[in-house]
Write a structure and sequence with these properties.
mainly alpha; 56% helix; globular; 5 helices; 155 residues
């Protein structure tokens, strides 16, 4: 009798796992899980876009940074994007804010965080560091005109 109960429980567990797998797969995104979403920017995410006196002082810096984060890529590309953000914010006259922002994006912008501002956020989650394939680079180029008309590509 105890063996039969265990077999029934095991069978129910397997069925439950199958149902969860189907639900998770259907909720995980578009049919082609490698499609790049159109570019979006939330400005400086959870950080102010500028000072009280100049409310959008470094907003363009954040938008250019978002463009890099949207497409993703290698760890080195992320580090370069983060350092470019720091340099841009320092260039508008806020070097202390630039250091604070650099710390924030280094800690909170990794690809494993399930946020809309993570590294590679234009691609379906999860996505790790890695060079874009030729097909992925074509998608970026195809969607880039819309993105580059939204923000300047040079801070």
């Amino acid at each position: 009798m105890a063996v039969e109960r265990r077999l029934i429980r095991l069978s129910l567990c397997k069925k439950s796992l199958a149902v969860y797998a189907v639900v998770f797969a259907s909720a995980s995104g578009p049919a082609n899980a490698q499609d790049l979403s159109p570019f979006t920017s939330d400005g400086c995410s959870s950080f102010p876009d500028g000072t009280f006196a100049q409310e959008q002082l470094w907003l363009e810096c954040c938008e250019v940074h978002d463009l890099a984060y949207w497409q993703g890529g290698t760890y080195q590309q992320r580090l370069s994007a983060d350092r470019a953000l720091e340099a841009c914010v320092a260039k508008v006259g806020e070097p202390e804010v630039a250091l604070l922002m650099l710390a924030g994006v280094r800690v909170g912008g990794g690809p494993l965080f399930m946020t809309d501002y993570r590294w590679g956020y234009g691609w379906p989650y999860p996505r790790w560091y890695g060079a874009l394939t030729d097909a992925e680079q074509r998608q970026v180029k195809r969607l880039m005109p819309a993105a580059s008309s939204t923000v300047a590509t040079e801070p």
